[in-house]
Amino acid sequence: MNSGKPARSEAALWRRRSFDVQASDVVVGRTVGPEPPRPWARTLRHVIDASHELNEAPSWWTPVDAYFGSAETRTDPSSYYWDGMKRLGRRDRPLVIFQFTFAGFGHFELYGRPPQKVTPGTGFFASIPSRHRYYLPETSPGWSFAWLGIYHPYLLRRIAKQVAATGPFVQASPNSPLVRHLVRLVRGAFRKDFRDRLEVEQALFEFTLAFERLVQAAPSPEGERILEELRSRVLADPRRPLGIELLASERGMTGTAFSHFFRARTGLTPAHFISEVKVQEAARLLVTTHLSLDRIATECGFANGNHFSKVFRRFRHQSPGRYRRSVG
């Protein structure tokens, strides 16, 4: 099966085009745009500062292994119009675009529906190809926004599933996890300051999780703390079983009460989150070590290789061996 990696010349061309996008004269800060609302001024400044350090992508930065993105200010309605059914050539890969407004506004519409104004603090996801369009309307004073293009096949399916359930739009505050992860990825698109493809994938997963938590039952500050505490415990010794009864007893609860407590504050079940953390650790070992699959299964606390493969497929939609070959 094709690994999904482009030929060397294709990858070089993709990196060149990505660099051209980030060096264009529409990048934020290089042209006068609409004034951002006060809450968004600082975030926009961070993005502008990131755009001043522009580096070409390393050799491993490909559409499947990474992503691309930028931050732009658009002021000419005649030069900014995207149709989701007319963007791909025959050999182009499907992708998802996320675009988030800092100042001014643009329009997003699904085919056959009225356009929706995308104002500061609002973003949208657009799967390509799909029946949508977004553009700068004549009535807008301009549109300053950040955007990402993501090709990761598993994340495409995961984002599409969430968008189908909750719609393409999201609203977030400047200090929200979604915006924090977005700014980190935009900075990475300009500076290419990730250590390797594994760190890129982790950043994309964290961004996707932030989106899901925002539109589902977003964790409270207490929920974020609970998740981080449990993540740290799992990673301290993934081989050690952390059953629901043990976690519940530490809080003086029954297993059922603890599960309700955990989900009410985080939007997740304890078992799902523990498995997710173990799969992330297993993915790291698959890429950064030559350990056998059985050894990784043991190190990450799975019952055996078959159990490891079953859980890994559930989260990554491919076997551990194929994952190792595709990103190794």
Low-confidence stretches: 1-7
**Helix fraction by DSSP (H/I, runs of at least 4):** 40-55%
Number of DSSP strands?
Answer: 9
CATH topology (fold) name of the largest domain: Jelly Rolls
**Estimated share of beta-strand residues:** 15-25%
Instruction: Describe the main β-sheet briefly.
Output: 5 strands, antiparallel
Secondary-structure class: alpha+beta
CATH class label of the largest domain:
Mainly Beta
What overall geometry do the principal axes of the alpha carbons give? globular
Task: Provide the domain count.
Answer: 2
Order of strands across the biggest sheet?
A: 1-8-3-6-9
CATH H-level superfamily title of the largest domain: Regulatory protein AraC
Intertermini distance:
15 Å
Count of helical stretches: 12
Structural account:
- By secondary structure, the chain is α+β, with helices and mostly antiparallel strands.
- It has 2 domains: 8-215, Jelly Rolls; 221-327, Homeodomain-like (Arc Repressor Mutant, subunit A).
- 48% of the residues lie in helices and 16% in strands.
- The protein has 12 helices and 9 strands.
- It has a 5-stranded antiparallel sheet. A 4-stranded antiparallel sheet has the order 2-7-4-5, with no helix packed on it.
- The two termini are 15 Å apart.
- The relative contact order is 0.11.
Topology diagram in text:
Elements: H1 8-23, H2 38-51, E1 67-74, E2 81-83, E3 95-104, E4 106-110, E5 116-118, E6 122-128, E7 132-135, E8 143-150, H3 153-166, E9 169-171, H4 177-191, H5 197-215, H6 221-236, H7 244-250, H8 255-266, H9 270-288, H10 293-299, H11 305-316, H12 320-327
Antiparallel strand pairs: 1-8, 2-7, 3-6, 3-8, 4-5, 4-7, 6-9
Helix pairs in contact: 2-4, 3-5, 4-5, 6-8, 6-9, 7-8, 9-11, 10-11
